[in-house]
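Exercise 7.
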Amino acid sequence: MLERIITALVLVAIVLCCMLATTLPYPRLALMTMAAGGAGYEWNKPMPPNAERLIHKPLAYGYGIMTAGLSALALYFNDIVILLWSASILSWCLSMYWVKSYPSYDGWYNPSLKIIGLILVAAAITAIFSLWQNSPWWLMYLFLLVWGADSGAYFVGRKLGKKKLAPSVSPNKSVEGLYGGVVTAMLIVIAVECIYLKLTLLEHVLFLALSVITVFSSVLGDLFESMIKRRAGIKDSGRILPGHGGVLDRIDSLLAAAPIFAAGLYILKLIGVDL
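Solution. The predicted structure, written as tokens, is:
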């Protein structure tokens, strides 16, 4: 537990330094590119066919470099970003069916997962960077929303959890925990809206709806990565973060939440919501 806490504190310190210590984009770009490369490297581990459940390092390094390259390229071309976010959201819509149908249906577990992973990781990284560029506080809000919901789900599920949410995918998650996470997130949303945002009633409703969708998508991201690891027969995506596993184990919720939240903010601004 101590190792886990120390690692978390170090990660938070690194992210905060990159976010707030300078307005230059280069530290952020470097951090995002490294995160994309690390996540891409780890995504290769549970991919089929991999009966030995080992990372084939040359292929994994190549996949990580490809993921980092696509992410870096998309950061310079907005058209690519929009395409990535759209493809990512479509993939997450499909993954809802896959999670619900597992283990009776696992036809999704095929080499096309490598392409899906490339899209999901690059979309999440570019979404995080986009929020960062727009305002570091929007990125902080996303982190607070996702981690707050996760913490609320953990504590409520631990105390009151009875009905399993997805027993074949993640046996420890409960429906009661999900409700606890949503309630916790709503408290965060209401606090942010009342203190920092001056919106009309309709704009409040739209922002609340986006936040709720973001919370549910973060749960889907967690379940989807858990399902892939369970199907591949592995526990963690990597071991680079002591006490936490790999990069993917830390950002699985953000893989879905980040592009959906960023795309939602983009749409709200297009229709005239002043955020």
